[in-house]
Amino acid sequence: MDIRNFVIIAHIDHGKSTLADRFLELTKSIDKRKMQEQFLDQMDLERERGITIKMQPVTMKYEVNDKEHILNLIDTPGHVDFSYEVSRSLAAVEGAVLLVDASKGIQAQTVAHLTTAVEQGLKIIPAINKIDLPGAQIEETENEILELLISLDSDAERIHKISAKTGEGIEELLADVVKTVPAPRIDIKKPLRALIFDSVYDDYQGVITHVRVLEGEISPGTDIFFMGSKEKSESKEVGIFSPQRVKRKKLQAGDIGYIVGGIKEIEKANIGDTITTVKNKATEPVAGYRQPQPVVFSTIFTKEDSAFEDLRDALNKLKLNDASLYFEPESSPVLGRGFKSGFLGMLHMEIILERLRREYDLDLLVTSPSVAYRVYLKSGEEETIFSPSQFPDPSEIEKTEEPWAHLRVITPPEYMNNVMKLLKTIRGEYADTEYIGKERMRINYEVPLADIISDFYDNLKNTTSGYGSMFYEIAEYREEDIVKMDILLAGDEIPALSRLVPREKAQSEGRKVAEKIKEVLPPEQFAVAIQAAIGGKVIARETKSAMRKDVTAGLYGGDYSRKRKQLEKQKKGKKRLKEQGNVELDSETLMKIFQ
Ligand code: GDP
Ligand code: MG
Asked: What is the pTM of this model?
């Protein structure tokens, strides 16, 4: 039977899940009664937030021109944090539907994913969606798509104009997928090579890998070998997605399906790894395998220290389905026990935190995110550090490095000035600007990752009235003089408030933090000095004034000397308090400082 393997490349909200629903209906893959919107988005969180986190593949049967076809669709996650997963699903297919919302135009991530798709030799089928909307700019979007394809040395026979909502143009689009996307080359004589593009954990069966079989074939009861993790096991079950799992006797070259390998830890069956057989080993794994690398770090505490074990259980459970989640225990004098955690990016972090709160009912405190720095010691050793508490004594340090990223911002030209102003507020190097169509510009920038992980995206959205979009890829590490900035309250160092900053930004950062603390710190009986310091040298300071207790209240009339006596007594009292002064920082105040 004729197979077509394809993905849909689209920005969040451009209608990918809705289009997939129409395909499922058209191919009668799902009983009308069972049909609910965004069928392939199975996690509650995905439905609520309307974003696709995990790819849910599906196999459909479709008859055109009296010929039956097998269509395998992989739904890809759209956000920057998951771009590596997207690149793996692109490697598992021969074609891509490029879906663009006619009212929004092309967005930065779409360009990035399309570029990868073209590089990997995929056939592109462009479609303009939401043509039913009154604000649809169909012609302009068509021009943008054309220019973009030309700039990538790619082309397409036609650009579809569809409405995933009303169903207009969907049948022609699917017929074009069958016509344009090449059937996979089927070589079942070669040793097995199955590319893992996703894996999920099942309580009974362990890790279930989602694979594209590129060469060879696999049936249950075969000894298999994971070429990246070097893990050996036996295939227990193989099958396809309908979209629920359906057992098959075998999978062969060209197929997309699943393999149950009796593996209990998801790190042993990583996305991007290649499965082969023990008896007849492939010589080369599928190219492009990468170990998932967390790039953003933060420490998670529970508000009640007693919930620490619950947090551990919850993280372990989430880890079963997410090999890229990293955590290790850490403790802080103020905040108690917690977990230092690593994420692929800010959205990944947000999703994990939301799931911990929602699915595990945990009350959490989270420190502000940090990148991973490289520290080269005079002793010749090299360390990766993301927590100020790990930072070595400056006298031992030879040099420090921080991660950079290629940043791509796409914006309508009228916001160009705003975007350039925003970019001036962060460190970085301007590369170039280019037009995509008439209504959109792309700005290429090189930036330190630390400067775009916390609030840059929000600022970009604000400064472009929501029209700007961004995409970044982690690039190389570059040398930068990184220092540990300590925060002192009434002369005491508060370790939870220390942070790693570039020396050139230390002063302004220090001032910002000191001001913030002054604002949120509850007043004490005595004035509190708030200092930011590097290696004992104060670089910024603020003073939180003492709480004013009106000791003269109740003393009416002219008894001036009594009033004076009272005030003098208070002054002495304050002095004594100040000498003993100890600032209690509760966790709520700490959180306000982190925000
Ligand atoms: P995804 O994030 O790309 O998966 O986008 P969804 O499929 O979840 O769609 C985002 C929103 O756009 C939903 O509210 C859909 O109902 C809506 N939508 C999708 N396609 C169309 C369309 O063709 N016309 C209109 N008017 N709305 C659409
Ligand atoms: Mg979706």
From this structure: 0.78
